[in-house]
Design goal:
The chain is α+β, with helices and mostly antiparallel strands. It is 33% helix and 11% strand.
């Protein structure tokens, strides 16, 4: 399995293609759909689609899509110290001219308590944009 997106005409087929129990996937989604229709999720108390936004919706219309994900610890547990402009700060507390940081090297494990896939993407994009804008506005090196 290459880790790409898998498409299937049924939940059972999707589960089989992802090398998980197709019938377990199908039963799990049917149970989820039942909770959505009843407006109550006794297993997890889910009340929104994502974060605090949107209402859960049933998953019933093919095609269905899935991707195989493997749990890994990919965070550093530290990172470079930076200021609000994403400039790197040295051990004396001074800005290192022309050196900006973004992504994992900047913040390591952002939450320090959780390890959630995808949390590094938002930081990399946000602070990458921040660093890029400030670096572009910086005086050129001589």
């Amino acid at each position: 399995m290459s880790g790409g997106i898998i498409q299937a005409g049924s939940l059972k087929e999707l589960g089989d293609k992802l090398k998980i129990s197709g019938s377990n996937l199908e039963n799990t989604v049917l149970q989820y759909n039942d909770y959505v229709q009843k407006g109550s999720d006794p297993d997890f108390g889910r009340t929104s689609l994502s974060g605090l936004k949107g209402k859960p919706v049933t998953l019933s219309t093919p095609p269905f899509y899935g991707v195989q994900i493997f749990a890994k610890s990919y965070f550093t547990k530290g990172g470079l110290k930076t200021d609000e402009s994403s400039r790197v700060i040295n051990w004396e507390g001074n800005v290192i001219p022309g050196l900006y940081a973004a992504g994992e090297i900047m913040f390591g494990n952002m939450a320090s308590r959780v390890l959630i896939m995808g949390t590094g993407v938002g930081g990399a994009i946000t602070f990458g944009l921040n660093a890029g804008q400030h670096a572009a506005a910086d005086n050129p090196w001589e």
